[in-house]
Amino acid sequence: MATLQARLEAGSNDYQTIQRDMTKAVENRQRLDSQLQENKIVQKEFSLLDESAKIYKLIGPVLVKQDKPEAVTNVDKRLEFIEAEIKRVEEKLKELQEKGERKKGELIKIQQMMQQEGAPKA
Prior knowledge:
mainly alpha
């Protein structure tokens, strides 16, 4: 019974760790989603500008003039990077969910074994 109890405690700790990792991954996914939306808005605004429009980029406390093609390229690359990160985080979330379900199943089996051992034998 003591070994089952130890296995249950260790499994429970593992499950809690998985849940914390999932929470972090969900927060990361939400942050990336907001960045994606912001960059899509910037991309849309750039498409409305004419070629002679002046674009400035904030670098530290200074605004630096930037060419439109360079700014558009930077935003496009940022969008590609964010989309790739979202895909990576979603894969990690899926993996963590599967891992959590497996660990949950293990914990249920251990609890059932403990109940069977603790039940009086007829």
